[in-house]
Amino acid sequence: MSTERPRTLARVAAIQALYQGEQTNETAETVIDQFIRHRLTTHPLPPINQPGNPLAHSIENGLSPHANAPLFARIVRLVTTQQDQIDPLIANLLPESWPMLRLDPVLRALLRAAAAELWMSDGPPARVVINEYLDIAHGFFADDAVQLANALLDRIARALRPADFPPSAA
């Protein structure tokens, strides 16, 4: 993932933090603090190509020093504070035979993060949010899961931002 995309890196970190919080039952503030202190800061490491470098500044190694930390924290906090509204919204968009807990936990975190960002009245346009999270989904999932994510992201966006999807002329 390119370091020139701090907002995308913030979204990836938010998904990872939401996943971690769900798996460990840690509070949002604890996870945010851990990510900001250990993953979203610049660590004094030698350059990636220097022999003996134990870590690299890359998202693959859990480090993302170029991520937009305020956006990251805002997404994680919003998911947590609005989860009693976000989760039912997502659950209602799923087939009745497919409960929310049946979703892959990373996909659940991705959908929650996207819903939180769509919840923001000052956030980017819905289609931008959908495209960003679909790009991220391609990094985590195979085609079937990406197609599911696409369908759900579209439904979430239409539910939360109907004005971004004007009726088409017949």
Note down, in words, how this protein is organized.
By secondary structure, the chain is mainly alpha-helical. It has one domain (6-161): NusB-like (N-utilizing Substance Protein B Homolog, Chain A, Orthogonal Bundle), CATH 1.10.940. 61% of the residues lie in helices and 0% in strands. The protein contains six helices and no strands. The chain has helices spanning 6-24, 28-38, 69-93, 105-119, 126-140, 143-160. α1 (6-24) packs across α3, α3 (69-93) crosses α4 (105-119) and α4 (105-119) packs parallel to α6. The protein is globular. The protein starts with 5 loop residues before the first helix and ends in a 10-residue tail after the last helix. Mean pLDDT is 85; it is low at 44-60.
**Would you report the number of β strands?**
0
The percent range for strand residues is under 5%
The domain tally reads 1
Shape: globular
* Overall helicity: 55-70%
Write down the Rg.
17 Å
CATH architecture: Orthogonal Bundle
Biggest sheet overview: none
Question: What is the CATH class?
Answer: Mainly Alpha
Count of alpha and pi helical runs: 6
Question: What would CATH call the homologous superfamily?
Answer: NusB-like
Outline the low-pLDDT stretches. Answer: 44-60
Indicate the CATH topology: N-utilizing Substance Protein B Homolog, Chain A
Span between termini: 41 Å
Order of helices and strands: HHHHHH
Any chance you could write out the topology, listing elements then pairs?
Blueprint: H1 6-24, H2 28-38, H3 69-93, H4 105-119, H5 126-140, H6 143-160
